[in-house]
Amino acid sequence: MKTFIKNFIADESGASAAEYALIIAVVGVGIGAAALVLGANVESAVGNAANEVNNCNNSEATAGKYTSGSVTCDDSGDAAEVTGS
C-alpha cells in the first residue's frame, strides 16, 4: 500500500491534461473579454457615425452647412456630402 501511494503521488501523467484545460480556460476568458470590448467600441463608433449623419441631414437650419470636429457636411445640393475622418 505504501508503494501504491508513493507511485500515485509521483505519477504526473494527468497533470498535462489539467494544464491544457487551464490554458484553454484562460484563453477563453481573454477572447470573451476582447469580444466584449470590441463590441462596445464598434457600438460606439456606429452610434457616433449615425449621429453625424443625422446632424448633417438636419443642418438645413444652418444654411446647409454643418461642421463637427473633423466632419463637415454640405447638403446644399441634392444629396448630403460628408467629408472628414
TrEMBL record:
Keywords: Membrane, Transmembrane, Transmembrane helix. It comes from the Bacteria. The chain crosses the membrane at residues 20-40. The keyword Transmembrane helix applies. Residues 66-85 are annotated as: Disordered. This is Flp family type IVb pilin.
